[in-house]
Amino acid sequence: MARKEIRLSSHEDEEVEIHGDVLEVVLSYVPLIDLVPASNVSKSWRSAVASSLRHLKKLKPWLILHKQSTYSPYASITYTYDPCSNQWIKVSMPSMNFFSTLKSSQSNFLYMMSSSKFSFSFDPLNSTWCHVAPPLVWRTDPIVARVGDSVVIAGGVCQFEDDPLAVEVYDFNTRAWCTCESMPESLKESAASAWLSVATTKGKLIVTEKKTGVTHWFDSETKSWSGQFNLNPGQPVVNYYIGSYEEDLILVGFCNNVEQFKIWKVSAENFYCEQIGEMPLAFVEKLKSECFGFSSINVLVARNFVYMYNSWEVEEMVVCELTSGGGGIGSCRWWSVPNVVCRDGMLKDRLVFTCSEVGFDELHRVMKMDNWKFEVVST
User: Fold this and answer.
1) 282 CB contacts (<8 Å, ≥6 apart)?
2) How deeply is 270 buried, as exposed, middle or buried, from its count of CB atoms within 10 A (0-12, 13-18, 19+)?
3) Per-position b or e across 98-123, b if 16+ CB within 10 A of its CB
4) 92, 140, 155, 162: least surrounded by Cβ within 10 Å?
5) Cα–Cα dist 112/114, whole Å
6) Phi-psi region of 202 (alpha: psi -120 to 50; beta: other; left: phi over 0)
7) Cα–Cα distance between 157 and 163 in angstroms, integer?
8) What are the helix (H) ranges across the chain?
9) Within the chain, which residues score under 70 in pLDDT?
10) Residue 376 and residue 126 in contact, taking contact as beta carbons nearer than 8 Å
11) Are 45 and 39 in contact (CB under 8 A)?
12) CB 122 within 8 A of CB 109
């Protein structure tokens, strides 16, 4: 690493010399939101920040909590959790024109839908939104996900519509909706985001029934469905949750016979399941609702991070980091995160969770925008 020298003035007007390699190590311990102003100190500091991010500081996906008031559905507050610094950050941003409730059925995809407009956002901090015509079929709880250069919307159809399994695709290139092959008949009783877990990989949308593990996939190029395939991790599972991991899948399953959550890596080619870890019992208890048990667990996956919470009792969330070892996933590191919203007594409001890989360039971009502010908050 090239050696650089930075001279700072002390109170005694003496010059203190900091070598670039030492500064880069120091900056590797600085939270990401503080690296943006640090990079503005000088060209040397900007170079040191860039080098630290490139060689020393491995960024981790953020958990993002969107709180929409039940009293004023057009008001929203966003909180983010950065696992690198173990900090919650309140994000103040310009008010947007909410015309419907925020929803999400994929880890990093937000959308709103009405009879006159469909809006969606999938950039890391949801600073930009696309506004297009609504899909042709009216829906209340569909699967919505970005797959390649398109947005796929499937199921969740209102009762008065003819096809409960209707599928439509919005193409970014043609800027138009097209009707595709309907979802498989085996999903007729579960064709809604409440009953299906979704992941995207290699231009495909993969859907799994949470209760049975029955899996189908939609090809965005051929606009057709394939399957069925039953996920079989080799032991009894009563709740299945999937997410994307590199070019494969992650399966989180609840084993009711031992009240245990386990994680498998699943091949996207043949759906072979390889167990990579299980949740310590102390964290299993944090996800259990006194009234509803484990019936309302939600799972978000981004890169090698898995976030889990119980939608009935979200005072605390469980985090799993998949660590490398031997050319693949080596082990799991577990911890829990107290929900910052609990501090303000806002659990009565509607909460939507996503997770995204927030990089330095993205953070630097939004912090330069008008009325964007980031404030570290305590739990």
Assistant:
1) none
2) exposed
3) eeeebbbbbbbbbbbbeeeebbbbbe
4) 162
5) 7
6) left
7) 8
8) 20-27, 32-39, 43-55, 281-286, 360-367
9) 1-20, 69-76, 325-329, 343-349, 379
10) no
11) yes
12) yes
In sequence order, the β-bridge partners of residue 90 are 79, 375
Query: How many helices and strands (H and E) does the chain possess?
Result: 5, 27
Other beta carbons within 10 Å of 292:
13
Q: What is the pLDDT of residues 253-301, one digit of tens each?
A: 999 877 899 999 999 888 999 999 999 999 999 999 888 888 889 999 9
Question: What gap in Å lies between CA 161 and CA 83, rounded to an integer?
Answer: 44
Both structure tokens of 35: 């690296």
Residues 6+ apart with CB under 8 A from 356: 61, 62, 64, 107, 108, 123, 124, 125, 302
Give the C-alpha separation, 370 to 158, whole Å.
Answer: 40
The encoded tokens of residue 171 equal 């193409």
Residue 101: left (phi > 0), alpha (psi -120 to 50), or beta? beta
Q: What's at 81, amino acid-wise?
A: Y
The Cα 348–Cα 341 span in angstroms is 10
* Location of structure tokens 């009711």: 256
Token pair 């979802």 is at which residue? 183
